[in-house]
Amino acid sequence: MRLPVHKVSSLGVEQQRVKVIVRFAGDELKRLLADGRLGVGYRVRVRIFTADKSQALLIPRSALFRAADNSWQVFVVRGGAARLQIVQVGLMNDEQAEITGGLTDGEPVVLAPESTLSDGTRVDVGP
Question: Which helix (H) or strand (E) holds 34?
């Protein structure tokens, strides 16, 4: 197993890079070469899946934030008010997070809550 390489981008952001070897399925490589859509020095965009679940409770990742004790929290709307709720998080990507505990299916959460939002603040659920 090769360890990640840490590099600093031109913007000063530390990046973790891992070498990935991609293999095309079946005759896909031959087809791409014949179509002229792939060649030496071409760039490709790929999506790499490291895990997958067929049944999961998902919320937008923007609804999640860390508490002072480093636990994950969301504001869930209950009874017309934003309620602070500790949740357990499973798989996560840039857009969504799997919730394995703390919420039930169908409970509305506040997307990208402002720092001024507090437990018990009255909120309206949009259409």
Answer: helix 28-34
Closest CA to 57 of 91, 11, 80: 91
Residue keyed to tokens 């891992």: 18
On the 0-12 / 13-18 / 19+ scale of CB atoms within 10 A, 82 is buried
Q: Given the structure tokens 């919420």, which residue do they identify?
A: 103
Give the dihedral of Cα atoms 28, 29, 35, 40; nearest 10 deg.
Answer: 160
**For 35-45, what is the mean pLDDT?**
78
Query: Residue 5 above 60 pLDDT?
Result: yes
Ramachandran region, residue 87 (left: φ > 0; alpha: ψ -120 to 50; beta: rest): beta
Enter the pTM of the model: 0.67
19 pLDDT higher than 90:
no
CB atoms within 10 A of CB 100: 13
